[in-house]
Amino acid sequence: MRGLLACATLVRRAASGGASAPARVRHLAGAAEAAEAELKKTALYDFHVAHGGKMVPFAGWSMPIQYKDSIMDSTVNCRTNGSLFDVAHMCGLSLKGRQAIPFLESLVIADVAGLKDGTGTLTVFTNERGGAIDDSVVTKVTDQHIYLVVNAGCRDKDLAHIGEHMEAFNKKGGDVTWHIHDERSLLALQGPLAAPTLQLLTKEDLSKMYFSDFKMIDINGYACFLTRTGYTGEDGFEISVPSENAVDLAKGILEKSEGKVRLTGLGARDSLRLEAGLCLYGNDMEQHITPVEAGLSWAIGKRRRAEGGFLGADVILKQLQEGPKIRRVGMITQGPPARSHSEIVSNSGENIGEVTSGGFSPCLKKNIAMGYVKSGLHKAGTEFKVVVRGKSYDAIITKMPFVPTKYYKPS
Protein backbone atom coordinates (compact mmCIF):
# COMPACT_ATOMS: atom_id res chain seq x y z
CA MET A 1 0.00 0.00 0.00
CA ARG A 2 2.88 2.39 0.73
CA GLY A 3 4.16 1.65 -2.75
CA LEU A 4 0.83 2.66 -4.23
CA LEU A 5 0.86 5.91 -2.28
CA ALA A 6 4.42 6.67 -3.37
CA CYS A 7 3.48 5.98 -6.99
CA ALA A 8 0.51 8.32 -6.78
CA THR A 9 2.69 11.04 -5.22
CA LEU A 10 5.29 10.68 -7.98
CA VAL A 11 2.64 10.97 -10.66
CA ARG A 12 1.18 14.13 -9.11
CA ARG A 13 4.61 15.72 -8.79
CA ALA A 14 5.56 14.74 -12.32
CA ALA A 15 2.29 15.95 -13.77
CA SER A 16 2.75 19.37 -12.18
CA GLY A 17 6.35 19.65 -13.40
CA GLY A 18 5.49 21.34 -16.74
CA ALA A 19 8.22 22.18 -19.24
CA SER A 20 10.83 22.55 -16.51
CA ALA A 21 10.48 18.94 -15.39
CA PRO A 22 13.17 16.52 -16.64
CA ALA A 23 12.18 14.78 -19.89
CA ARG A 24 12.16 11.34 -18.25
CA VAL A 25 9.85 12.53 -15.47
CA ARG A 26 7.52 14.16 -18.00
CA HIS A 27 7.50 10.89 -19.95
CA LEU A 28 6.64 8.95 -16.78
CA ALA A 29 3.86 11.40 -16.00
CA GLY A 30 2.43 11.06 -19.49
CA ALA A 31 2.59 7.27 -19.32
CA ALA A 32 0.94 7.30 -15.89
CA GLU A 33 -1.84 9.59 -17.14
CA ALA A 34 -2.43 7.29 -20.11
CA ALA A 35 -2.54 4.30 -17.80
CA GLU A 36 -4.97 6.14 -15.52
CA ALA A 37 -7.24 6.83 -18.49
CA GLU A 38 -7.37 3.10 -19.24
CA LEU A 39 -8.43 2.20 -15.71
CA LYS A 40 -12.06 1.32 -15.10
CA LYS A 41 -14.02 3.60 -12.82
CA THR A 42 -16.85 2.74 -10.48
CA ALA A 43 -20.09 4.72 -10.34
CA LEU A 44 -18.68 6.53 -7.27
CA TYR A 45 -15.43 7.70 -8.90
CA ASP A 46 -16.37 11.41 -9.06
CA PHE A 47 -17.86 11.14 -5.56
CA HIS A 48 -14.52 9.83 -4.24
CA VAL A 49 -12.56 12.61 -5.91
CA ALA A 50 -14.96 15.26 -4.59
CA HIS A 51 -14.46 13.91 -1.06
CA GLY A 52 -10.68 13.99 -1.24
CA GLY A 53 -10.11 10.36 -2.20
CA LYS A 54 -6.52 9.58 -3.23
CA MET A 55 -7.04 7.41 -6.29
CA VAL A 56 -4.62 4.62 -7.21
CA PRO A 57 -4.63 1.72 -9.70
CA PHE A 58 -5.97 -1.50 -8.21
CA ALA A 59 -6.87 -4.65 -10.18
CA GLY A 60 -7.49 -2.56 -13.30
CA TRP A 61 -9.65 0.00 -11.50
CA SER A 62 -9.05 3.50 -10.18
CA MET A 63 -9.84 3.15 -6.47
CA PRO A 64 -9.41 5.32 -3.36
CA ILE A 65 -6.58 4.19 -1.12
CA GLN A 66 -7.51 6.75 1.54
CA TYR A 67 -9.29 10.06 2.05
CA LYS A 68 -8.31 13.12 4.09
CA ASP A 69 -7.83 11.16 7.31
CA SER A 70 -4.93 8.77 7.77
CA ILE A 71 -5.18 5.04 7.18
CA MET A 72 -4.62 4.53 10.91
CA ASP A 73 -7.46 6.90 11.87
CA SER A 74 -9.79 5.30 9.29
CA THR A 75 -9.06 1.83 10.66
CA VAL A 76 -9.80 2.84 14.24
CA ASN A 77 -12.95 4.73 13.21
CA CYS A 78 -14.34 1.63 11.50
CA ARG A 79 -14.09 -0.31 14.76
CA THR A 80 -15.46 2.51 16.93
CA ASN A 81 -18.08 3.99 14.55
CA GLY A 82 -18.21 2.74 10.99
CA SER A 83 -16.87 2.79 7.46
CA LEU A 84 -18.38 2.88 3.99
CA PHE A 85 -16.33 1.22 1.27
CA ASP A 86 -16.87 1.27 -2.48
CA VAL A 87 -16.23 -2.34 -3.51
CA ALA A 88 -17.90 -2.12 -6.92
CA HIS A 89 -14.67 -3.33 -8.53
CA MET A 90 -15.59 -6.80 -7.26
CA CYS A 91 -17.70 -9.02 -9.51
CA GLY A 92 -21.19 -10.14 -8.51
CA LEU A 93 -22.92 -12.84 -10.50
CA SER A 94 -25.95 -15.10 -10.34
CA LEU A 95 -26.19 -18.73 -11.39
CA LYS A 96 -29.71 -19.93 -12.18
CA GLY A 97 -31.32 -23.16 -13.27
CA ARG A 98 -32.49 -26.54 -12.00
CA GLN A 99 -28.89 -27.71 -11.66
CA ALA A 100 -27.21 -24.52 -10.54
CA ILE A 101 -26.29 -26.05 -7.18
CA PRO A 102 -24.76 -29.34 -8.40
CA PHE A 103 -22.86 -27.37 -11.05
CA LEU A 104 -21.40 -24.94 -8.52
CA GLU A 105 -20.59 -27.78 -6.12
CA SER A 106 -18.38 -29.30 -8.81
CA LEU A 107 -16.18 -26.18 -8.56
CA VAL A 108 -16.23 -25.19 -4.85
CA ILE A 109 -15.72 -26.87 -1.48
CA ALA A 110 -18.92 -25.60 0.19
CA ASP A 111 -22.04 -27.63 0.90
CA VAL A 112 -24.21 -25.23 -1.09
CA ALA A 113 -27.21 -27.61 -1.14
CA GLY A 114 -27.13 -27.72 2.67
CA LEU A 115 -27.55 -23.96 3.03
CA LYS A 116 -30.96 -22.63 3.99
CA ASP A 117 -32.56 -20.30 1.44
CA GLY A 118 -31.30 -16.78 2.03
CA THR A 119 -28.02 -17.79 3.71
CA GLY A 120 -24.45 -17.96 2.51
CA THR A 121 -20.92 -19.02 3.37
CA LEU A 122 -17.32 -18.40 2.46
CA THR A 123 -16.04 -20.91 -0.07
CA VAL A 124 -13.05 -21.57 -2.33
CA PHE A 125 -12.88 -22.33 -6.05
CA THR A 126 -10.27 -25.08 -6.43
CA ASN A 127 -8.18 -26.40 -9.30
CA GLU A 128 -7.30 -30.01 -10.16
CA ARG A 129 -4.36 -29.89 -7.73
CA GLY A 130 -6.53 -28.70 -4.86
CA GLY A 131 -5.12 -25.17 -5.03
CA ALA A 132 -7.23 -22.04 -4.61
CA ILE A 133 -8.33 -20.29 -7.79
CA ASP A 134 -10.20 -17.72 -5.69
CA ASP A 135 -12.23 -17.36 -2.52
CA SER A 136 -15.82 -16.16 -2.65
CA VAL A 137 -18.92 -15.58 -0.55
CA VAL A 138 -21.66 -17.74 -2.06
CA THR A 139 -25.34 -17.34 -1.20
CA LYS A 140 -28.18 -19.77 -1.82
CA VAL A 141 -31.06 -17.45 -2.71
CA THR A 142 -33.27 -20.42 -3.68
CA ASP A 143 -32.66 -23.97 -4.94
CA GLN A 144 -32.42 -22.51 -8.44
CA HIS A 145 -30.63 -19.21 -7.79
CA ILE A 146 -27.12 -18.79 -6.41
CA TYR A 147 -25.57 -15.34 -5.89
CA LEU A 148 -21.82 -14.96 -5.43
CA VAL A 149 -19.14 -12.29 -5.43
CA VAL A 150 -15.59 -12.91 -6.67
CA ASN A 151 -12.46 -10.82 -6.27
CA ALA A 152 -11.71 -8.01 -8.72
CA GLY A 153 -8.20 -9.22 -9.45
CA CYS A 154 -9.52 -12.70 -10.24
CA ARG A 155 -12.53 -11.66 -12.31
CA ASP A 156 -11.24 -12.62 -15.76
CA LYS A 157 -9.71 -15.86 -14.52
CA ASP A 158 -12.81 -16.81 -12.51
CA LEU A 159 -15.31 -16.03 -15.26
CA ALA A 160 -13.27 -17.99 -17.81
CA HIS A 161 -13.07 -20.93 -15.41
CA ILE A 162 -16.78 -20.90 -14.54
CA GLY A 163 -17.82 -20.31 -18.15
CA GLU A 164 -15.71 -23.14 -19.53
CA HIS A 165 -17.04 -25.64 -17.00
CA MET A 166 -20.62 -24.40 -17.42
CA GLU A 167 -20.45 -24.92 -21.18
CA ALA A 168 -19.19 -28.49 -20.70
CA PHE A 169 -21.81 -29.12 -18.01
CA ASN A 170 -24.67 -27.94 -20.22
CA LYS A 171 -23.43 -29.97 -23.17
CA LYS A 172 -23.96 -33.04 -21.03
CA GLY A 173 -27.58 -32.08 -20.42
CA GLY A 174 -27.14 -29.68 -17.53
CA ASP A 175 -29.40 -26.70 -16.88
CA VAL A 176 -27.41 -23.67 -15.71
CA THR A 177 -27.33 -20.06 -16.91
CA TRP A 178 -25.54 -17.06 -15.49
CA HIS A 179 -25.84 -13.30 -15.28
CA ILE A 180 -22.91 -11.03 -14.43
CA HIS A 181 -24.20 -8.04 -12.46
CA ASP A 182 -22.25 -5.28 -14.22
CA GLU A 183 -25.38 -3.12 -13.98
CA ARG A 184 -25.04 -3.02 -10.19
CA SER A 185 -22.54 -1.50 -7.75
CA LEU A 186 -21.41 -2.93 -4.44
CA LEU A 187 -21.01 -0.97 -1.20
CA ALA A 188 -19.70 -2.35 2.09
CA LEU A 189 -20.99 -0.75 5.30
CA GLN A 190 -19.01 -1.95 8.31
CA GLY A 191 -18.73 -1.21 12.03
CA PRO A 192 -20.90 -0.76 15.15
CA LEU A 193 -23.05 1.92 13.49
CA ALA A 194 -23.66 -0.11 10.31
CA ALA A 195 -26.94 -1.68 11.39
CA PRO A 196 -28.48 1.33 13.18
CA THR A 197 -27.56 3.60 10.26
CA LEU A 198 -28.87 1.27 7.57
CA GLN A 199 -32.06 0.66 9.57
CA LEU A 200 -32.96 4.33 9.02
CA LEU A 201 -33.06 3.68 5.27
CA THR A 202 -35.20 0.51 5.14
CA LYS A 203 -38.47 -0.85 6.54
CA GLU A 204 -36.95 -4.35 6.84
CA ASP A 205 -36.22 -5.37 10.47
CA LEU A 206 -32.44 -5.82 10.34
CA SER A 207 -32.34 -7.21 13.90
CA LYS A 208 -33.76 -10.45 12.47
CA MET A 209 -31.03 -10.68 9.84
CA TYR A 210 -27.89 -12.47 11.03
CA PHE A 211 -24.32 -12.93 9.80
CA SER A 212 -24.29 -14.48 6.28
CA ASP A 213 -28.04 -13.88 5.76
CA PHE A 214 -29.19 -12.50 2.40
CA LYS A 215 -32.30 -10.57 1.40
CA MET A 216 -33.61 -8.67 -1.60
CA ILE A 217 -35.07 -5.50 -0.08
CA ASP A 218 -35.66 -1.80 -0.70
CA ILE A 219 -33.03 0.49 0.80
CA ASN A 220 -33.58 4.22 0.40
CA GLY A 221 -36.18 3.29 -2.22
CA TYR A 222 -33.80 1.21 -4.33
CA ALA A 223 -34.03 -2.53 -5.05
CA CYS A 224 -30.95 -3.97 -3.32
CA PHE A 225 -29.33 -7.30 -2.60
CA LEU A 226 -28.30 -7.18 1.07
CA THR A 227 -25.86 -9.61 2.66
CA ARG A 228 -24.85 -9.35 6.32
CA THR A 229 -21.15 -9.90 5.86
CA GLY A 230 -17.95 -7.99 5.23
CA TYR A 231 -14.18 -8.06 5.23
CA THR A 232 -13.28 -6.27 8.46
CA GLY A 233 -14.27 -8.59 11.32
CA GLU A 234 -16.96 -6.09 12.30
CA ASP A 235 -20.72 -6.42 11.97
CA GLY A 236 -21.85 -5.00 8.68
CA PHE A 237 -23.38 -5.42 5.25
CA GLU A 238 -22.52 -5.67 1.59
CA ILE A 239 -25.14 -3.85 -0.48
CA SER A 240 -25.61 -4.50 -4.19
CA VAL A 241 -27.46 -1.51 -5.61
CA PRO A 242 -28.32 -0.44 -9.19
CA SER A 243 -25.34 1.63 -10.32
CA GLU A 244 -27.47 4.66 -11.14
CA ASN A 245 -28.52 4.79 -7.47
CA ALA A 246 -25.11 4.09 -5.90
CA VAL A 247 -24.11 7.71 -5.23
CA ASP A 248 -27.49 8.60 -3.71
CA LEU A 249 -27.32 5.56 -1.43
CA ALA A 250 -23.78 6.42 -0.33
CA LYS A 251 -24.88 9.98 0.44
CA GLY A 252 -27.89 8.69 2.38
CA ILE A 253 -25.77 6.38 4.53
CA LEU A 254 -23.24 9.09 5.34
CA GLU A 255 -25.97 11.63 6.18
CA LYS A 256 -27.95 9.25 8.40
CA SER A 257 -24.80 8.46 10.43
CA GLU A 258 -24.35 12.19 11.11
CA GLY A 259 -20.74 12.03 9.97
CA LYS A 260 -19.68 9.14 12.18
CA VAL A 261 -19.56 6.62 9.33
CA ARG A 262 -16.75 7.74 7.04
CA LEU A 263 -15.79 6.96 3.46
CA THR A 264 -12.86 4.57 3.77
CA GLY A 265 -10.30 3.37 1.24
CA LEU A 266 -8.23 0.32 0.40
CA GLY A 267 -5.48 1.15 2.90
CA ALA A 268 -7.69 0.80 5.96
CA ARG A 269 -9.56 -2.10 4.37
CA ASP A 270 -6.27 -4.01 4.25
CA SER A 271 -5.41 -3.16 7.87
CA LEU A 272 -8.88 -4.20 9.03
CA ARG A 273 -8.89 -7.55 7.23
CA LEU A 274 -5.38 -8.34 8.52
CA GLU A 275 -6.44 -7.57 12.11
CA ALA A 276 -9.41 -9.91 11.54
CA GLY A 277 -7.07 -12.66 10.29
CA LEU A 278 -8.76 -12.81 6.88
CA CYS A 279 -6.97 -14.00 3.75
CA LEU A 280 -6.17 -11.69 0.86
CA TYR A 281 -6.16 -13.64 -2.39
CA GLY A 282 -2.84 -13.15 -4.16
CA ASN A 283 -1.04 -12.81 -0.82
CA ASP A 284 -2.30 -15.39 1.65
CA MET A 285 -3.96 -17.66 -0.91
CA GLU A 286 -2.60 -18.70 -4.30
CA GLN A 287 -3.17 -21.40 -6.88
CA HIS A 288 -0.61 -23.63 -5.14
CA ILE A 289 -2.17 -23.24 -1.66
CA THR A 290 -5.02 -25.54 -0.65
CA PRO A 291 -7.92 -24.55 1.63
CA VAL A 292 -6.56 -26.96 4.26
CA GLU A 293 -3.15 -25.29 4.26
CA ALA A 294 -4.87 -21.88 4.40
CA GLY A 295 -6.75 -22.83 7.57
CA LEU A 296 -10.12 -22.97 5.81
CA SER A 297 -10.94 -26.64 6.47
CA TRP A 298 -14.04 -25.46 8.34
CA ALA A 299 -15.46 -24.27 4.98
CA ILE A 300 -15.49 -27.84 3.61
CA GLY A 301 -18.95 -29.18 4.40
CA LYS A 302 -19.34 -32.57 6.12
CA ARG A 303 -21.13 -34.00 3.10
CA ARG A 304 -18.40 -32.68 0.79
CA ARG A 305 -15.76 -34.39 2.93
CA ALA A 306 -17.62 -37.67 2.54
CA GLU A 307 -18.51 -37.36 -1.14
CA GLY A 308 -15.82 -35.13 -2.67
CA GLY A 309 -16.93 -34.26 -6.19
CA PHE A 310 -15.08 -30.94 -6.51
CA LEU A 311 -11.85 -30.21 -8.39
CA GLY A 312 -8.78 -31.39 -6.45
CA ALA A 313 -10.90 -33.30 -3.94
CA ASP A 314 -8.44 -36.20 -3.80
CA VAL A 315 -5.61 -33.89 -2.70
CA ILE A 316 -7.73 -31.94 -0.22
CA LEU A 317 -9.40 -34.95 1.39
CA LYS A 318 -6.00 -36.61 1.80
CA GLN A 319 -4.71 -33.50 3.57
CA LEU A 320 -7.73 -33.56 5.87
CA GLN A 321 -6.83 -37.11 6.88
CA GLU A 322 -3.05 -36.85 7.07
CA GLY A 323 -2.54 -33.15 7.73
CA PRO A 324 -0.92 -30.60 5.39
CA LYS A 325 2.83 -29.99 5.17
CA ILE A 326 2.45 -26.25 5.74
CA ARG A 327 -0.07 -24.16 7.67
CA ARG A 328 -1.18 -20.53 7.75
CA VAL A 329 -0.43 -18.87 11.09
CA GLY A 330 -0.71 -15.50 12.76
CA MET A 331 2.32 -13.76 14.24
CA ILE A 332 3.29 -10.88 16.49
CA THR A 333 6.63 -9.51 15.29
CA GLN A 334 9.23 -7.11 16.69
CA GLY A 335 11.30 -4.52 14.85
CA PRO A 336 10.03 -3.08 11.56
CA PRO A 337 6.77 -4.61 10.26
CA ALA A 338 7.36 -7.88 8.40
CA ARG A 339 5.86 -7.56 4.92
CA SER A 340 4.91 -10.08 2.27
CA HIS A 341 7.79 -12.44 1.31
CA SER A 342 9.76 -11.79 4.52
CA GLU A 343 11.57 -15.00 5.42
CA ILE A 344 10.65 -16.91 8.58
CA VAL A 345 13.57 -18.75 10.19
CA SER A 346 14.03 -20.91 13.28
CA ASN A 347 16.16 -19.64 16.15
CA SER A 348 19.00 -21.73 14.65
CA GLY A 349 18.63 -19.99 11.30
CA GLU A 350 16.78 -22.70 9.33
CA ASN A 351 14.17 -21.50 6.84
CA ILE A 352 10.74 -22.63 8.08
CA GLY A 353 8.37 -20.42 6.09
CA GLU A 354 7.42 -17.04 4.66
CA VAL A 355 5.29 -14.06 5.62
CA THR A 356 2.38 -13.43 3.24
CA SER A 357 0.80 -10.31 4.81
CA GLY A 358 2.02 -8.01 7.53
CA GLY A 359 1.94 -4.50 8.93
CA PHE A 360 1.41 -2.32 11.95
CA SER A 361 -1.98 -2.85 13.61
CA PRO A 362 -3.64 0.55 14.21
CA CYS A 363 -5.93 -0.97 16.84
CA LEU A 364 -3.41 -3.12 18.72
CA LYS A 365 -0.47 -0.73 18.29
CA LYS A 366 1.90 -3.58 17.44
CA ASN A 367 3.18 -5.43 14.40
CA ILE A 368 1.07 -8.35 13.17
CA ALA A 369 1.54 -10.71 10.25
CA MET A 370 0.29 -13.88 8.61
CA GLY A 371 2.30 -16.48 6.81
CA TYR A 372 3.00 -20.16 6.26
CA VAL A 373 5.27 -22.38 8.35
CA LYS A 374 6.07 -26.08 8.35
CA SER A 375 3.49 -28.23 10.14
CA GLY A 376 4.57 -29.01 13.68
CA LEU A 377 5.89 -25.47 14.09
CA HIS A 378 2.45 -23.88 13.85
CA LYS A 379 1.29 -23.99 17.48
CA ALA A 380 0.52 -20.76 19.34
CA GLY A 381 3.48 -19.69 21.47
CA THR A 382 6.13 -21.02 19.07
CA GLU A 383 9.02 -18.55 18.84
CA PHE A 384 11.16 -17.88 15.75
CA LYS A 385 12.65 -15.00 13.74
CA VAL A 386 11.47 -12.94 10.78
CA VAL A 387 14.01 -11.42 8.41
CA VAL A 388 13.32 -7.81 7.45
CA ARG A 389 15.80 -5.98 5.23
CA GLY A 390 18.51 -8.51 6.03
CA LYS A 391 18.11 -8.38 9.83
CA SER A 392 16.41 -10.94 12.08
CA TYR A 393 13.76 -9.94 14.61
CA ASP A 394 11.86 -11.90 17.24
CA ALA A 395 8.39 -13.23 16.40
CA ILE A 396 5.87 -15.49 18.07
CA ILE A 397 2.86 -17.38 16.72
CA THR A 398 -0.48 -16.23 18.08
CA LYS A 399 -4.06 -17.27 17.49
CA MET A 400 -6.18 -15.37 15.01
CA PRO A 401 -8.14 -13.18 14.68
CA PHE A 402 -5.79 -10.63 16.20
CA VAL A 403 -8.77 -8.36 16.98
CA PRO A 404 -11.94 -10.16 18.18
CA THR A 405 -14.65 -10.39 15.51
CA LYS A 406 -18.08 -8.89 16.15
CA TYR A 407 -20.27 -10.72 13.63
CA TYR A 408 -23.98 -10.44 14.42
CA LYS A 409 -25.21 -13.92 15.28
CA PRO A 410 -28.15 -15.32 17.25
CA SER A 411 -27.41 -15.23 20.99
Task: Produce the secondary structure layout.
Elements: H1 2-15, H2 23-38, H3 45-50, E1 54-58, E2 61-66, H4 71-80, E3 82-86, E4 91-96, H5 100-105, E5 119-126, E6 132-142, E7 145-150, H6 155-171, E8 177-180, E9 184-190, H7 194-199, E10 214-219, E11 222-227, E12 236-242, H8 246-256, E13 261-263, H9 266-275, H10 302-307, H11 313-322, E14 326-333, E15 343-345, E16 351-361, E17 366-374, E18 383-388, E19 391-398
Helix pairs in contact: 1-2, 4-9
One letter per element, helices H and strands E, the order comes to HHHEEHEEHEEEHEEHEEEHEHHHEEEEEE
Radius of gyration: 22 Å
Alpha-carbon distance between the termini? 38 Å
In terms of structural class, how would the helical and strand content be classed?
A: alpha+beta
Number of strands: 19
Net shape:
globular
The biggest beta sheet is recorded as: 6 strands, mixed
Q: Which assembly state applies to the chains in this document? A: single chain
> What percent of residues adopt helix (DSSP H or I)?
25-40%
What proportion of the residues form beta strands (DSSP E)? 25-35%
Uncertain runs? 1-31
Question: Strand order, biggest sheet?
Answer: 10-11-12-9-3-13
Report the average pLDDT across residues: 93
